[in-house]
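Handout, page 2. Input:
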Amino acid sequence: MGTDRRITDEIGNTPLLRVHLFDEAAPGVEIYAKAEFMNPGGSVKDRPALRMIEEGERSGRLTHDRVILDSTSGNTGIAYAMIGAARGYRVKLVMPTNVSEERKQLVLAFGAEIEYSDAQEGSDGAILLARQLRDADPDRYFMPDQYNNDANWRAHYEGTGLEIWEQTGGRVTHFIAGLGTSGTFMGSSRRLKELNPAVRCISVEPDEPWHGLEGLKHMETSIVPGIYDPALADDNVGVSTEDAYDVARRLATTEGILIGHSSGAALHVAGSVGRSLAAGGQGGVIAIVFADGGDRYLSSGLYRQRDR
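Output:
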């Protein structure tokens, strides 16, 4: 066939899907979602994981005698495990014990090792434990440190943000994404604002410290990622777990798109923004990020329908 494509060559260039859930409530407003669940590892985190590993290789800090180590709530870990398997690296991940069972099984399926941190400490506890492991044996590990690595947001600056611009024909007026490491929002927003300073960029986070939105951080009560710059957002919106779950369930049953917790939160905000624009007699082109699919959250109760 003359081709030698590997799984990592398929990362990026994901489709932009038209979402119709709010068409009636927000006439004149178009909502599009970047279908990042169509990356080979199933999430938006494939992009920064690949970029951070490639930067490690280029710098010489990552060699095959070292183990890739990082903390993760799941998706970046799955991406590390997949890419590590494809490139011949051992991978060790620190994850809170309460991440979804599907995420744990996916990581193990790729041959990675898991060290569990206290569920009560959330992603911050995983960060601290990963640092302890690295500091105890620095010659053994290469730690990309996704929360503080500029290669994280640059993957989205060069990929996600530019793709959204091109796929909307430069018509995008609003960009919405959740905050975890913040890399997706930081990189995409920087690129879109360079292309058109009028694009409004809205970040999304849980509305309280104790929440059920895996992958998102309540920034005020969390270890703030080094790559996060709150000044980049034109607005920051808190979303309840219940609202995010509700809109995700509605999307699945009306449009056949199964999304995860953080995607539900972003979609909820897109609906609010769309209704506000329509109420003011304005149109708009809203682009949001569907960070991952709902199939890796089936055990979490996200799609456990209430009795009708």
